[in-house]
Amino acid sequence: MDDQMHTLAESGQAPREDTAMISREVWPVTYPRGEVRASDFRVVEVEVRRPRPGEVLVRNTWTSVDAALRLRLRETAPPGYFPAFPLEEPMDGIMTVGEVVESRADGFSPGDMVWHASGWRDYAVVEAGRQALGGVGTLTKLDVDVAPPQAHLGALGANGLTAYAGLFHAAGLRDGDVVWVSAAAGAVGSLAAQMAKIRGHRVIGSAGSDEKVRYLLEELGLDAAFNYKRGPLPDLLREAAPDGIDVYFDNVGGDHLEAALGALRRSGRVAICGMISEYAAKEPPHGPGNLMLAVTKGLTIRGFRASGHTRLLPEMRRQVGAWVREGRLHCRETIVDGLPQAPLALAGLLRGDNTGKTLVRIDGGTHRENTVD
Question: What Gene3D superfamilies does the database record attribute to this sequence (predicted)?
Fold first, then answer.
């Protein structure tokens, strides 16, 4: 992109009619086998058309990186999930935030900060009102006085909605419940754990490193936490919750779900929002061998997705926004700078290198972590 076009976009001005705007886009060129690699993608420069009536042109500033993207980087996505990303095409259906630079849609003006679902690219032409990602990614104007724009990809966006809906609706959190959250240092897990603590519950978190365990205990203030790599999972959970648990918020599946079934008390509940242990597994991972406990203990196991709870978005954003303003909910960010680094950011997340929300700042060139309070 030349300097003139970059300046026009950053100033919120539309390009001249006779000027072509060039945008970088990350396209998959092959479906990963095992670990995601940079060679599975390429960065393509494309010409961006002007918006038509009912559309806006957005200069993307931050784009999301989520473990569940791995489910779409395969020939066929799981039944009932969002479709697989086609090869050699832009990756539609990735949350991003950016600034409107040209609008032909009612309710949107140049300078507005918005979220939408055309991420992993510099610019996007987005149709206002068109549903994306089950409604979670529909073009929406953001209140950036509450929190920085990128927070709307995490605590105030789909990750926050997943945590909120999972705890308070899928799991039906009740007074006195003891809660275990797996992958508790991740984008969704860290929010779910904090929400349960804010509501006065005893919360146990698990993660994959001693550093993350310290984060859970010292920064998030959980009651107990453990590194699941430090021994047999049922023993570690029993030590953290000797009297058992009432709610398991599952981000991992596999042996974590099996351990939870053993630790859950009568009428316990499981809210499953993800199973990262399966996303890139070359062989089917070990699954629960004790499902009969769901019968004998009267357990409820419920899978859910944020897109099934979009009606809760306004409520969640009000409540979580208040917790952020009050300093009660903390949002750690792992930031990778530069659009071409998005595939490596995804690979790092799947390896467990991140803490909190993983984001790509589209213009940049370094890697760092940041905390939004």
Answer: Medium-chain alcohol dehydrogenases, catalytic domain, NAD(P)-binding Rossmann-like Domain
